[in-house]
Amino acid sequence: MSGFTRHRKSGAAVTTFTAFEADLLRSLAGQLIELLRNESATEEIASDDLEDLLDFSGPTREPEDPVLARLFPTAYPEDEDAAAEFRRYTEADLRNGKAAGAATVIDTLEDAGLPAEPQDGLFIDVELDPATALTWLRSFTDMRLAIATRLGIEEGDEEFWYSLPDDDPRAQVHDIYDWVGYLQETLVRAVGG
User: Fold this and answer.
1) Which domain of life is it from (predicted)?
2) 59-111 pLDDT tens trace
3) Burial level of 41, CB count in 10 A (0-12/13-18/19+)?
4) Which candidate, 43, 51, 191, 179, places its Cα nearest to that of 127?
5) 3-state secondary structure labels for all residues of the chain
6) For residues 72 and 74, what is the distance between their CA atoms, to the nearest angstrom?
7) Among candidates 15, 10, 3, 36, which has minimal Cα distance to 145?
8) Could you tell me which residues are beta bridge partners of residue 171?
9) What is the tens place of the pLDDT at every residue in 133-183?
10) Which whole-number Å values give the CA distances from 17 to 32, 127, 137, 178, in the listed order?
11) What's the predicted TM-score (pTM) here?
12) Which of 96, 81, 37 is nearest to 63 (CA)?
């Protein structure tokens, strides 16, 4: 398992993944896209002609899925109407941006040579320009928030996670959470120079 480093000449962030690691990242990004696209949080709201033209038909209530609620927290918890209006005008674009970022992770891996069915012994060399690296960093954050929410990870509970037996599925998912965090940390260093 290697993290990202900065390429001396190009300044790009580079790493090499095994086919298994690259496929795991592709799977996490795909699951994130699916989650972002599947839950409908919109309700019919009376609108005027200008709003119809600009399509402000975004979600107005907090998502039911706890991961989506964590990714899109309520902006004004003390004012339900203001929160609904804010969400209506912003959440659709935020969802689209997060989904596009996850799609960039997938596209980058596939452009680097990740086949539809990973092969043993295959290595994938990834090179990220600064803009793509920032997109990956945001996607890593989204992936880690999703995993942390599903597992119930809280600050300061490392001892619990490290005490789980290796064959516990939660321990295995926590290892993925840690790995994505490691990738994120090394990518930050590679981008920062």
Assistant:
1) Bacteria
2) 778 888 999 999 999 999 999 999 988 988 889 899 999 999 999 999 999 99
3) buried
4) 191
5) CCCCEECCCCCCEEEEEEHHHHHHHHHHHHHHHHHHHHCCCCCCCCCCHHHHHHCCCCCCCCCCCHHHHHHCCCCCCCCHHHHHHHHHHHHHHHHHHHHHHHHHHHHHHHHCCCCCCCCCCCEEEEEECHHHHHHHHHHHHHHHHHHHHHHCCCCCCHHHHHHCCCCCHHHHHHHHHHHHHHHHHHHHHHHHC
6) 7
7) 36
8) none
9) 999 999 999 999 999 999 999 999 999 999 999 999 999 999 999 999 999
10) 20, 11, 16, 16
11) 0.87
12) 37
What CA–CA distance (Å, rounded) separates 7 from 3? 13
Whether the Cβ atoms of residue 76 and residue 62 lie closer than 8 Å to each other: no
What is the rounded distance in angstroms from the CA atom of residue 101 to the CA atom of residue 11? 21
188/173 Cα distance (integer angstroms):
23
- Write out the two tokens for 116: 């539809």
Strands 123-128, 13-18: pairing kind: antiparallel
Residue 20: CB partners within 8 Å, gap ≥ 6? 118
